[in-house]
Amino acid sequence: QGQLVESGGGLVQAGGSLRLSCAVTGHTFRSSTVGWFRQAPGKEREFVAAIFRSYGRAYYTDSVKGRFTISKDNAKNTVYLQMNSLKPEDTAVYYCALDNSIILSSIQSAENYDYWGQGTQVTVSS
User: Fold this and answer.
1) Among candidates 34, 45, 15, 24, which has minimal Cα distance to 97?
2) Are 96 and 22 in contact (CB under 8 A)?
3) By the number of CB atoms within 10 A of the CB, which of 13, 32, 63, 100 ranks highest?
4) C-alpha distance across the termini of the chain, in Å
């Protein structure tokens, strides 16, 4: 059974930046779909960004386009989420997720990912 371990969360002022990391072990990382989701208190877990399999193309939810960048380092088995121009509404617990068989049309649905990290808190103050 593999593991996904997030790091890099914290408290930042609005307009600031953070980079989240997710170290993956025990999975075929290169060909997997990896994604970031977030969950704010009282809300459902929502899709943030993903890289589909080994094709390398990134997908984002509209609210983070132009501000967030997802990337993966196959040599380090790590996926990153660079978050710039942070807003208070970005405050949430951020989770990385991985799946080996998801199809492209399903990458924005949390229920379709089999493997999850424990989450890291991001708090943006106004």
Assistant:
1) 34
2) yes
3) 32
4) 40
